[in-house]
Amino acid sequence: MSNRKYEMGSVVSKDGTVIGYRQMGDGPDVILFHGGANASQSYSKLGADLSDAFTVYIPDRRGRGLSGPFGDNYSMRREVEDVDALLTETEAHNVFGLSSGGLIALQAALDLRSIRKAVINEPPLDVDNSIMTMLQSFMPRFDREIGEGKIADATVTLLKDFGALFLPGALQPVVNIAPRSVLVWLSRQILRRDAKNVTGDNVPLEALIPTFHFDYQLVVEMQGTLESFEAVPADVLLLGASKSPAFLKHTLDALEDVIPHVHRIELQGLSHGAALDGGKPERVAYELRRFFL
Q1: What is the pLDDT of residue 2?
Q2: Which of 53, 74, 91, 266 has its CA at a distance of 20 to 30 angstroms from the CA of residue 153?
């Protein structure tokens, strides 16, 4: 969003943590929550596409960019408190969340009556242990590499087992077949180039990659909560993509069965990161307009 006009604002969450956000556009208020290893900059194009019809708020979730640290007692409760502070300040009633941001938006839609409409885009809610099995296959290595300061290695570990979901389709086979040593070298070059080119309020990838640990923590915490979403009072749109992995589609199937006021759309030909700048955010914006207006 560095090349698009926006204003900055902030709120103070219940535990005293500052949550910063970017604001653009004019119209009904909508808040966009990013997922793992991302920040508000990841919704530059989506925010711009919505800004002619909405006042768009794009927070940096805690631990990133404009916002304060994760804190000693990080949990879903803290994330929902951050959402509550944003809703109170902006008087917004519409929320969108992708991936772990979708998990947060989902829990917030259950806990916070001020949310009237929520678009939940492929949240990693584990309903049959498939997501945890996948994450546990690489998270110990990821955490170890982060602890050793090997950000490029940890990036490859993430890409190999999960992060490729966010890559354009043409790049996913490259990640799957290329030797790890080559991918680590490429990752190191990309991180260096990114660090040199970061401008304005954007957060370098090198700082975003380690935050994935905390998104994993949310997935662990939210296991076994599916049935609680029978009590969601908000109108919910479950948004998926045809090229996303089966475990995310299975989660949407399960949520569709329990959420009372639910609609569902699958974006054909797209994958998990469609809402991000490197995806097809204009397709996502079209569905958000239809649902929120």
Answers
A1: 41
A2: 74
